[in-house]
Specification:
6-stranded antiparallel β-sheet; 45% helix; disordered N terminus
């Protein structure tokens, strides 16, 4: 079969899967939430319907808890749904959602208020905790051209506190799983800015995103991967630490609390964006020395990436690819041509959107609103490929 025929077949299969996914979403979920479910699924989250705030509506899911993300697996889970017209939904943690992990903060006072039926007190405590936690979340440039720095995570308000949802790179996720040795790890109780919270870290399983008591805020989609070091610093800020590896001394609770002040104001952006700066003048100077890709270069890149250019991964792949092209000083025209050919070869139905995103990224650098080293580049591209492979 020729390359053109293979690309056409793959494109048809992708369209077929997307059509099935869209049809299933509007059958299983209420129309008011189906579009959001599809958006989250397109960004690589394995979303499942919930009957209640704690009970998934699928007959079983644990056989897929270690499976990699794929539309086929999402459909497989949705086929196990007991009913239809669900308003509530949740997400699978770990590999099924591209290395998604959860930090669970249960406020002791909010828990007591819920048990005693003091709803106004419970809501007030949860809202205050969420507001204070939001201030220390790891952040990075939103990439919207306005210079906004937004949290690189999602935050869910729960009945008893908050959930912090973060994505790790593949290698860091595997290290964390090995380090913890189990799916859910209680990290202890801590005092954080007037709140006494019980902290738990979850690396596998399911968790609600949208129910009667769960409301999730995502500042950036797709969630950009953060490092394991970022997770450790965030936990230290909250007053707890990850279990130490064997042979290392575990700090006591007082030392952990003492460490809060050292990192409280430091978690402001993803540390991969803290490389030495490059001046706007340097960027302008390089305009005259553009590197030109040969036809062979473009064809090779398309051939390598087209099979991985799928929903749930293609957005991150594009960010990494275009960032790398900018850093290699490839012209905008060639970047547009490469991304167009790649999208078409992969059967991407949003070619125009891809081209517009290429122009946006180049414009940010050209206008001095973003430095090339602040872009994801080759590292981001390779991390996303590792997630897929």
């Amino acid at each position: 079969m020729s390359q053109a025929s293979q690309a056409s077949t793959q494109g048809s299969e992708t369209h077929s899967l997307m059509d099935k996914l869209r049809e299933a979403a509007y059958k299983i979920f209420r129309a008011t939430v189906a579009s959001k479910v599809l958006e989250l699924t397109d960004f690589g989250f394995t979303i499942i319907p919930y009957e209640t705030e704690r009970k998934p509506a699928v007959s079983k899911w644990k056989d897929l808890k270690d499976a990699e993300y794929s539309i086929e697996n999402v459909l497989k889970l949705w086929e196990r749904t007991k009913g239809s017209n669900y308003e509530y939904y949740g997400v699978m943690l770990g590999r099924p959602s591209n290395n998604l992990v959860l930090i669970d903060l249960d406020d002791v006072d909010a828990t007591k208020a819920a048990e005693e039926g003091r709803e106004e007190d419970r809501q007030r405590i949860v809202d205050d905790l969420a507001e204070k936690v939001e201030q220390i979340l790891p952040k990075m440039d939103a990439g919207d051209g306005w210079g906004f720095v937004l949290p690189a995570v999602a935050l869910t308000k729960t009945r008893r506190g908050v959930h912090i949802l973060l994505r790790l790179g593949r290698a860091d996720y595997e290290k964390l799983v090995e380090r913890l040795g189990k799916e859910n790890t209680e990290l202890g109780e801590a005092e954080y800015r007037g709140h006494r919270v019980k902290v738990e870290l979850r690396v596998k399983g399911v968790t609600p995103l949208h129910t009667q008591y769960h409301r999730t805020k995502c500042w950036q989609l797709p969630l950009p991967p953060v490092s394991l070091h970022t997770v450790e610093r965030l936990l230290q800020t909250l007053g707890v630490r990850l279990p130490v590896l064997s042979g290392k001394v575990q700090p006591n609770a007082a030392e952990a609390r003492e460490g809060n002040l050292d990192v409280q104001n430091n978690i402001v952006r993803h540390e991969e964006n803290t490389h030495p700066s490059t001046s706007i003048q340097d960027t302008s100077a390089r305009e005259t020395t553009r590197r030109r890709l040969s036809e062979q270069d473009i064809a090779k890149i398309v051939e390598v990436l087209k099979n991985y250019w799928v929903p749930g991964h293609r957005n991150n792949l594009q960010l990494g690819l275009v960032g790398w092209l900018i850093k290699r000083n490839v012209s905008l025209e060639q970047a547009e041509e490469l991304v167009r050919r790649l999208a078409e070869a992969a059967g991407d139905e949003e070619v125009r959107k891809r081209i517009d995103e290429v122009r946006r990224q180049y414009r940010l650098v050209q206008n001095g609103e973003k430095k090339p080293e602040e872009l994801l580049g080759k590292t981001g591209l390779l991390e996303e490929l590792q997630v897929i492979i």
